[in-house]
Amino acid sequence: MFEHLVCFRFKETLAAQKEQELIETLLSFKGKIPGIVEISAGVNETEETNNVQGYTLGLRVTFQDRESLQQYGPHPVHQEFVKSIGGIIDNVIVIDYPVR
Fold this sequence. Notes:
It is a single chain. By secondary structure, this protein is of the alpha+beta class. The protein has helices at 16-27, 66-72, 76-84, and strands at residues 2-10, 36-43, 55-63, 89-98. It is globular. It has a single domain, classed as Alpha-Beta Plaits (2-Layer Sandwich). A four-stranded antiparallel beta sheet has the order 2-3-1-4.
């Protein structure tokens, strides 16, 4: 299996409703994109405020294998999401690693 971690930083503070819409969209990937074993997403609530660096939304996706992870990026559902946040996203951090 492979873990895919994403941290999102937005250009401006998002309204709570918009954050929830994004989370619901991300969670809907399971069942629409093959190879997703588990998925979670949420608003950053860390108490380590000096380490936040503006990243307010997190995503964790567990894929069944490396091939599923590789097919995720160009998948139309994922690409539609990427386009939908194009105007509001400032930066993302991505980490992918095999589960051992």
